[in-house]
Design brief:
Blueprint: H1 5-10, E1 23-29, E2 38-44, E3 51-55, E4 58-64, E5 73-79, H2 90-98, E6 102-106, H3 123-141, E7 149-159, H4 161-169, H5 189-195, E8 210-216, E9 235-240, H6 249-258, E10 263-268, H7 282-287, H8 289-292, H9 300-318
Amino acid sequence: MRWQGFIGLLAAVTLSAPAAAAGVRLLKIPADASGPAITVSVWYPSADKPSPVTFGPFTVLAAQEGKLNGHGLPLVVLSHGRGGDFVVHHDTAEHLADAGFVVAALNHPGDTALDKGLFYDLSVYVQRPLEVKRVVDYMIGVSPFAAAIDPNRIGLYGFSRGGYTGLVVIGADPDFALGLPRCEGRNEKVCDQIRAHAYPKEPLTHDRRIKAAAIADPPSVFFTTENLAGITIPVQLWGSELGGDGVDPETVEALNTALNAPHTFTKVKHAQHFSFLTVCPPDLAEQAPVICKDPLGLDRAQFHEQLNEALTKFFGAHL
């Protein structure tokens, strides 16, 4: 995703985080041989009193560092899109936390608003699924939340490039050569790498601990019925009617047809690609209209109430 107006605003962020009567805590997964450090914002059930917390342009109610409520809780990993970060789906994280889930929303290194080192590099498509696995390892292993999480109840929600990430994590093996037609006449680094076959031939990282996945508006050009065959868990697939940021509605519809795993598909009428992001405050909406403003016929706040409730019901049924 392109964030433009978002980037300067998020640069002013200090350690604070959003939640609606949910607990929230920022964690750092240490760097190791498999990759760099990963920042994770964790939302979770908490009965502690919330107070206003400011995160960049957002002010929300959160029990920051609040006491965790519950045991045997399901975990949902949240993977953002290109150039996003852990805050851009905060309303979804809050809703799930209020419903009794632990939500681990990670910043994918090199692919955030403030860290774009791998923005146009093919390696990001390889590293992202591994980063999700590292988050799961950490959350159920040595994190402060590990004792309260049921390791048999793990789900994933991914948007845009995070949707691609989710598909790979749950079993898809992308064929990067399928991106060649879209690279005609383009000199982006990722296209140069695809033309040079500078991508791994072996399957990428899968994590069979994940039992259900919700996927929203993913870039789908690398997938076919054959390389989606490894997906067997329930999937809740979402697509925008109008697309955007390189995601064509037709490719998401083709993914729906090619996916043989048990799944549902919801095409959101009047929605554009960025309609899946949290509602923007007025000032941000003026500075980043492409991201924040929706077509006529879509009320983003109302849509997110429906989206978050549907996600909660889906994960509740399958985790």
